[in-house]
Design goal:
The chain is mostly helical. 73% of the residues lie in helices and 0% in strands. InterPro entries: Glcn_transporter.
Length: 86
């Protein structure tokens, strides 16, 4: 993604209090989906991430790469001993 493409995407995206409302709505969805609907947490997180992308008017071609970049930066391999204790 070039800086020009990112700047054009930011120009049409939702900002401010509406974006905060969308994120709060996504958090509530994650809690509801995992607690009541018994959906796997990873799937709930993935659906919420796509929902935030669509509702914030992010261009569709950027939603997938942004989610992949976000999940890719978790660095779960550094937390291996924590997961092995459970």
């Amino acid at each position: 993604m070039t800086p020009e493409q990112l700047a054009a995407a930011k120009a049409v995206m939702v900002h401010g209090p509406l974006l905060i409302f969308i994120v709060v709505l996504a958090i509530l969805f994650i809690i509801f989906a995992t607690a009541k609907l018994k959906i796997h947490p990873f799937l709930a997180l993935l659906l919420a991430a796509y929902g935030v992308g669509f509702l914030s008017k992010m261009p569709v071609e950027f939603i997938g790469p942004m989610i992949a970049q976000g999940f890719g930066n978790l660095k779960l391999w550094q937390r291996g001993p924590i997961f092995q204790l459970q």
